[in-house]
Amino acid sequence: MAHNLEQCVRLVSKAAAAGAKVLFLPEASDYIATSGAQSLSLAEPVARSPFVTGLQSAAAKHSLAVHVGIHVPVPVSAVAKSSIMSPLLTAAPLSAAAATVGSGSKSPGGDGGAQETTTATKLYNRTIWINEDGSLNEKASYDKLHLFDYATLRESANTQAGAAFTPPFASALGRIGSLICFDLRFPEAALRLTQSPSSAPDPAQILLYPSAFTVPTGRAHWEVLLRSRAIETQSWVVAAAQVGRHGGEGVRRVSYGRSMVVDPWGRVVMELKGVKDVNGGKGVWKSGWRPRTEPSGRWGWWISISASGSG
After folding, report:
1. Which of 27, 44, 155, 271 is catalytic?
2. Which secondary structure element, helix H or strand E, spans residue 53, and what is its range?
3. Number of C-beta neighbours around residue 299 at 10 A
4. Would the keyword Hydrolase be found if you checked this record's keyword annotation (predicted)?
């Protein structure tokens, strides 16, 4: 985790020096563990997470907003159980009660207030928004609704599905709608955030999909899904993606990469390279900019993690 924080802090500095307004980082930027038990052991409440507090300090130092994916411990009982197969039928706009849990992995205390969770039975796969002054936007955190359960990857074994969408929120770039990775395969979620009436008075203009796509699904579907969501909703799409092998040689988990920005016409206007080839379990990847066209002037620079995390 310390290594990942070091990478992210360097990217904050680099993005700020280039004139960026926001730094978009991938899903699970704090760590990708080798087991469910390790993931639970590494997770910390937001207020105590050295990864989060380190990023807050960097954001404040460079006056740069940061959107980042993290893990947050939470007892299953702290969240109302809802269907992860069709959360669109059950999820409501984020309520005040949900915001309390969503803001810091908290559960009701004996005095009617809230206390931080210390014993984790599951995790939230969460994104948070760090303001330019280093503070957290308490209304912008989002817990992944659709969990990836396929083949040997069973996200629901250790992750609790979110209870609701996060209403679109304002940023220096426009109104943002937050989704994560596997949410990309559900067009209704994108439409929910971008169509009026939305779960907020003003619908999202920008959809975020921080991700850690697998290589096979990434090669087949990553770009086409991102472009589809942009076209369907007539929105900008920003997808910061993990890339490369997690944990070094012998570790099977490899993420596809290819972070990209897609405009409302469905054009990929900015892109990072991803995994180049995978044979016999070995991944070869490169990182660097490959813009297809000049991005809109109002975006300025954006940057994302372009190297594998060490866990």
Report:
1. 27
2. helix 50-62
3. 20
4. yes
8, 106, 155, 181: the active-site residue: 181
Question: Are the beta carbons of 45 and 117 closer than 8 angstroms?
Answer: yes
Give 252-302 pLDDT, tens digit per residue: 788 999 999 999 999 999 998 887 643 333 323 333 333 333 334 334 434
Domains assigned to the chain: 2-299 (3.60.110.10)
Q: Are 135 and 64 in contact (CB under 8 A)?
A: no
What's the predicted TM-score (pTM) here? 0.78
Cα–Cα distance, 278 to 289 (Å, whole number) = 21
Terminal CA-to-CA distance of the chain, rounded, Å?
6
Q: DSSP 3-state assignment of 36?
A: helix
SS3 70: strand
181 tagged catalytic: yes
Do the beta carbons of residue 253 and residue 247 sit within 8 Å? yes
d(CA 125, CA 119) in angstroms, rounded, equals 17
| 27 assigned to active site | yes
Residue 111 structure tokens: 């005095």
Contact status, residue 242 vs residue 212, Cβ threshold 8 Å? yes
* Residue pointed to by tokens 């997470």: 49
- Cβ atoms of 69 and 27 within 8 Å: the answer is yes
Q: Which two tokens stand for residue 290?
A: 């490959």
